[in-house]
Amino acid sequence: MKLRLLAFLLFISFSGLAQDQLIYQSKNLPKPDTTWVFTPKNYRKAQKLPVIFLLHGYSGNYKQWDNIMNAQQYADQYGFMIVCPDGLYNSWYLNSPAKADLQYENFFFDELYPDILKKYKVDGQNVFISGLSMGGHGALYLFIKKPDLFSAAGSTSGGIRLIDSFGKYGLGPLLGNPTKESEVWKQFSVYDQIGQLKGNEKPIIFDCGSSDMFYASNNLLKQKCDSLKLNATYISQPGGHNRAYWAKSIRQQFEFFKNQLKN
């Protein structure tokens, strides 16, 4: 009986630690970045697998997505590797013009992205990125910067127009405390930079709940995507800026990304 109990406890222990934990000491960040990587149950037998980077929201951390949607179950169900980096509370996943030691875009492209492709059996033709709120902005922003590195991108409840968050969410100090009239808001906003994707046929998906504080701006982003004739899918649906909404939304996004997989 004691042996069986010990075996059961060991199983519970290992099953609860299915994800890999990577810690990056980066010259581009003020402190170490912890990243969780979830591999699907067929990982050992597979030659290459798709991967999705999931970026958390303001004040969250690398555990947020797993708390919302049980990342291991999603990895097993969809056959995706899931990478959840830490956005350091309020990095907005960009290179700060005011803080030399907070260059998250550089960290992502120069360190995190290549390291994941090096360490894991990633299918380079099937790399996706998405996120919620701050992370929704971050996912689309990074996609705009280097669309060739991704197959598609998504955002849920994204704060895609930074001026909407004037005086909030750590953006002032991050951007050097600009005035409302400063062009720096446009320089770092998805809404204002989306035009860089004109002529790019890669798909993006973004959604926002009708009771969300960012709803109006996401509607404007949809209009801009239409005017640019981008391959953009927009989902407007009931919901707020909360965990219940993101739990519903992320399944819609996984279904979308599954349909974009290249053989």
Layout of SSEs?
Elements (H helix, E strand, L loop, with lengths): L1 H14 L4 E5 L8 E6 L10 E7 L8 H6 L1 H8 L2 E4 L19 H16 L2 E10 L2 H12 L6 E5 L14 H5 L8 H4 L2 H4 L10 E6 L5 H14 L3 E6 L5 H17 L4
Strand order of the largest sheet: 1-2-4-3-5-6-7-8
* Secondary-structure element series: HEEEHHEHEHEHHHEHEH
Question: Any idea what the radius of gyration is?
Answer: 19 Å
Instruction: Tell me the distance between the termini.
Output: 49 Å
Overall pLDDT confidence: 93
Beta strand count: 8
CATH class type: Alpha Beta
Q: What is the total domain count? A: 1
The main β sheet shows up as: 8 strands, mixed
Count up the helices. 10
For this structure, the CATH topology is Rossmann fold
- Kindly state the percentage of residues in helix: 25-40%
> What would you call the structural class?
alpha/beta
User: Which residue ranges are poorly predicted, with pLDDT under 50 across at least 5 consecutive positions?
Assistant: 1-17
The CATH superfamily is known as: Alpha/Beta hydrolase fold, catalytic domain
Note the overall shape: globular
CATH architecture: 3-Layer(aba) Sandwich
Strand-residue proportion: 15-25%
List keywords for this structure.
single chain, 263 residues, alpha/beta, Rossmann fold, 8 strands, 19% strand, disordered N terminus
Structure write-up:
The chain has helices at 2-15, 64-69, 71-78, 104-119, 134-145, 171-175, 184-187, 190-193, 215-228, 243-259; strands spanning 20-24, 33-38, 49-55, 81-84, 122-131, 152-156, 204-209, 232-237. With 263 residues, the chain is an alpha/beta fold. The protein has a single domain (20-258), classed as Alpha/Beta hydrolase fold, catalytic domain (Rossmann fold, 3-Layer(aba) Sandwich), CATH 3.40.50.1820. It has an 8-stranded mixed sheet, sandwiched between helices. Helix 5 (134-145) links the parallel strand 5 (122-131) and strand 6. The longest helix has 17 residues, at 243-259. 41% of the residues are buried. The model is unreliable at 1-17 (pLDDT under 50).
